[in-house]
Amino acid sequence: MRFVREKTVVQLTYLPKVFPVNCYLVEEKDDLTLVDAALPNNAKAILQAAEQIGKPITRIVLTHAHGDHIGALDSLKQQHPSVQVFISGRDARLLNGDRSLDAGESDSPIRGGVPKENAIRTKPDVLLQDGDRIGSLLAVAAPGHTPGSMAFLDTRNDSLIAGDAFQTRAGIAVSGQTKLLFPFPAMATWDKETSLKTALRLRDLKPTLLAVGHGNLMQQPLRAIERAIAAAERSLHSKMREENNRNVT
């Protein structure tokens, strides 16, 4: 896996030039927090990266429960059973294969590689809510890609690990907005309107570094985030006009 360090965040990328899948090590004083668990065959490389840094992984924090973010979870937990696992209470259901929707949620189907029931042996130790703290990370509810997606802001330097709320591969985009050269995050997005609301909220955190599930790190990303939001707004407004025109005719 490719190893790129910026501030307190280390980006680990599997297949960076072909189909980039990222996870992150966030460095604390004495230990590491792993954000996301990439693919099943990435466990060894993740542990080797921690050894290179010279600190143990004591927490695994999941942005959401798609397969390319939880793949190595069982292997890592089996090798290091004392590691605590964190995920939102909402996406904990997806982790167990439950695709059902709550009252008041968009009736769009939950998409993407959700595990089958009981396919993941690891059970979360902590169910996160908006505003919780995990070491130096602030948990930020970021629904849209999945109903319970979360982002994590390193409060020491405003680095934002956004999961799939944005992508930077093939150009920055809000989750649900298709980039033709890398359309897969959009294809796996649950609700575009909710994603846009999340993008606005994450913009207001004024991140100095944007770290996403697919694509390179982005320094000083605010202008690029604004462009991505504007493009998403235009796309959604155009879709609404088309639907209104169909209803009229």
Kindly describe this structure.
The chain is α/β, with parallel strands linked by helices and 249 residues long. The chain has a single domain (2-248), classed as Metallo-beta-lactamase, Chain A, CATH 3.60.15. Helix content is 29%, strand content 24%. Helix 6 (192-203) packs antiparallel against helix 7. It is globular.
Write a concise keyword list for the protein shown above:
249 residues; Metallo-beta-lactamase, Chain A; seven-stranded mixed sheet
Domain count: the total is 1
Coarse morphology: globular
Strand content: 15-25%
Q: Tell me, what is the CATH class?
A: Alpha Beta
Secondary-structure content class? alpha/beta
- Taking the alpha carbons of the first and last residues, their distance comes to 54 Å
Strand line-up of the largest beta sheet: 1-2-3-4-5-6-7
What CATH calls the topology is Metallo-beta-lactamase, Chain A
Number of strands: 15
H/E series, N to C? EEEEHEHHEHEEEEEEEHHEEH
Please, how many helices? 7
CATH architectural group: 4-Layer Sandwich
CATH-defined superfamily: Ribonuclease Z/Hydroxyacylglutathione hydrolase-like
- Helix content percent band: 25-40%
**Rounded average pLDDT:** 96
Radius of gyration: 17 Å
Poorly predicted runs are none
Report the major sheet: 7 strands, mixed
Short description:
With 249 residues, the protein is of the alpha/beta class. The chain has one domain (2-248): Metallo-beta-lactamase, Chain A (4-Layer Sandwich). Helices cover 29% and strands 24% of the residues.
